[in-house]
Amino acid sequence: MRKLTAAALCLATTLTAAGCGAQVEPSGTAKPSTKSSAVTLTNCGKKVTYDKVPERVVTNDVGITELMFALGLEDRMAGFAMPDDKGDLKSVPWKDGYDQVRWLSKDQLTKENVLAAKGDFVFAGWDYGFREEAGLTPDALKKLGISSYVLTESCRGGRADDARGIMPPLDALYTDLANLGKLFGVEERAQKLIADFKQRVAAVQAEAPKGADRPRVFLYDSGRDQPFTSGRYAAPEQIISKAGGVNVMHDVADSWTTVGWETVVKRNPEVIVVCDYGEVSAGQKRDFLRSHPALRDVSAVKHDRIFTLDYVDLVESPRNPSAVERLGAYLRKVADER
């Protein structure tokens, strides 16, 4: 992570994706606006005005790219940058998007990628493409006449350490869908997606364990000497809480960050969620957790309660509701077994 349905409210026309449970309108049904009037949005707490509807959008990483696909905006895209370690991209509702849009780079987005693609708009996030050391920032792009939008999950909160996150993660997802819907003239589609996602999450929450029955959950992304995990502003916070668990790192006021193993041991999670991506497989991560001496007496390891979700499930993306559903089913089982 470098720093993304039992009771679905069906949309007008839906496509159910094998393996991820998402339900959305098929790609190509949206009718993006061609209007030229200016649109003003609030992005990361700031008012931003766009003089025209972008026509050559460049995105960074899988979650951000799939937000565009979920809104049916493939025709507005010039390409995306994404490592090729993000799992299966062929059995998702947005397969057509991946077939239609150019894969610009199997690394993080660069200014050179954007210019080569003749991009007029960049949708990325801080540490999801935007980074000062690479010279790829909204301000740098603006000087080139290229507009941008910052993924809300990655917004910097104005704290001294530049920690990321300014609102609950699912609110960030809904905010970005609504903003993009307004900018591209697909507001009806955006609102249908938001309503569907909220209903699905609420259905899981209604069945979830309550009070003391809620399992304590630790999100393990990567790292051996120190684990990389999720604080309260990254998607796992609400994926865990809406599913019926308690994120043991809820008090960490950041999105993705590093903690110490001693903190994990002290908080004694009953379930560990492994983020599947990268060169180290989910199976290898599970084996490491099981063999780590410090974790020997941690409840999740003792009872082998280790659950895997994909990277794209755990960064802000249209797959978040499906992740809530799948983790919710697992946590209900854990609560029943205790």
From TrEMBL:
InterPro entries: ABC_Transporter_SBP, ABC_transptr_periplasmic_BD. Residues 56-338 form the Fe/B12 periplasmic-binding domain. Residues 1-22 form the signal peptide. Gene3D superfamilies: Nitrogenase molybdenum iron protein domain. Keywords: Signal. It comes from the Bacteria. Belongs to the bacterial solute-binding protein 8 family. This is ABC transporter substrate-binding protein. It comes from Streptomyces solicavernae.
